[in-house]
Amino acid sequence: MDPGGVTTALVASDGVTTPSGASPDDDYWRRPDPAGPPDSPASGRQRSPGDGTSGEDAGGVPGGPAAAGYTGPPPTSPPPPGWRPPVHIQGTPPRRLPPQDMAALDADEQRAQRVTWGMGAVTGVVLLVLLCLLCSRAFLRG
C-alpha cells in the first residue's frame, strides 16, 4: 500500500522511470556506507548472500572484517627448470614433399589465364548484343 492508503498494482515496469535512489524500495539494494559500522545480527539488518560485503563472502569468518576488494588470483609456483610434460606417443617425422616442376606450373597458369580471358570476352560480347537489342527495341517503339 502507498502512504495515502491506495493499493497499487505490481507491474514489472513500475518505477522504472524514477531516478536512481528516489524510491525507498531501492534501499535494500544499495551498498552500505563504507564509513558506517559493520553489519551485525544486533543491527537488525540482514545481508543477502552474494552482495559482497560480509566477511564470509570475502573468505573470512562470518561477522569478521570484510576484505578490501579484489586482491587478485592466488600466487602460483613455477615448474622446476627443464620440466616438460610427459610424452606418451612419439609422432612420426614429416615426409618430404615431391619436387615441383616449375615449367609445367607456369604453362598451366598461362592456359588457365587464357581460358579466363576468353570466357570474359564471350560474356562481354553477349552482354553487348543484349544491350543493343534492348536499346533498338526501345528506340523503334518510341
TrEMBL record:
Determine if Transmembrane is one of this entry's keywords.
yes
Regions that span the bilayer? 117-140
The entry's protein name is Uncharacterized protein
User: Residues annotated as region Disordered?
Assistant: 1-108
Q: Which UniProt keywords apply?
A: Membrane, Transmembrane, Transmembrane helix
Q: Which organism is it from?
A: Micromonospora mirobrigensis
Bias regions of kind Pro residues — which residues?
72-84
